[in-house]
Amino acid sequence: MSIENPVSQLEIDELSELELADKFEYERDGFEAFYKRRELLGPHSEVVEAIDMVKNKEKALEIGPGTHNEVRYMIEQGFHVTAIGPDNTDRYSRDIDENKLTSLQGDITNFNFEANQFDFINASLVFPFIDKEKWQSVISGLKKALKSEGVFVGIFFGENSIMVTKENNASTNVDEIRSFFEDGFEIKKLEELGPKSSPKGMYHSIVVIAKKE
To answer: In the chain, which end has fewer C-beta atoms inside a 10 angstrom radius, N or C?
Structure first.
């Protein structure tokens, strides 16, 4: 699937049984299988939708770039992208113009961004892997880093996602996400995606797109 045909989080859920379990042997390879599958796909359609809402496409922040599908799309749209993630994803950015991408390695919880720095922030499928006790401080920092009229997009695991465990306690719900953006933001989209309960589905997810006033 190409950039011209972006994949939605719902489509990813529908693909998960065959693509993960059968083709890439998810049980054995874990998230390496996820990365292999994501290489075949374009950017999340939710990210494409959010970028369409951005007035000034100058500076973007990508948290957890993975296979850099979204990074490539942002650059095509005119952004210079700052991407923060682990070093094991660097191999997916070797073909990207280094003048248009700044890659930083590290834990997002350790970054302190300047105010009004970015026109767009993508934090899709990042918060499930952050200690939930740190969510509020991380989100506050990202909101501060966003310029006026800038747009934030995030995809979170819902309470029935099979990816949520007692150890990571990374689930959330629509009401909790709404509370993060009550002040100074206009919520453009807040929607549950995928099955709310499925023994085989990869995700019960919630997507939020919020624009800073």
So the answer is: C
Among all chains, which residue has been given the structure tokens 């919880």?
109
Two structure tokens written together for 180: 């993060």
Structural domain that includes position 72: 43-212
DSSP 75-121: HHTT-EEEEEE-GGGGGGGTTS-TTSEEEEES-GGG--PPTT-EEEE
Residue 19 lies in a domain: no
- One-letter identity of residue 94: R
Q: 3-state class of 181 per DSSP?
A: coil
Q: What is the pLDDT of residues 20-71, one digit of tens each?
A: 443 444 445 555 555 555 555 678 889 999 999 999 999 999 998 877 889 9
Is 0.85 topped by the overall pTM?
no
Residue 31: inside a domain? no
Is 29 contained in some domain?
A: no
Residue 55: CATH number of its domain = 3.40.50.150
Q: Are the C-beta atoms of 123 and 63 separated by less than 8 Å?
A: yes
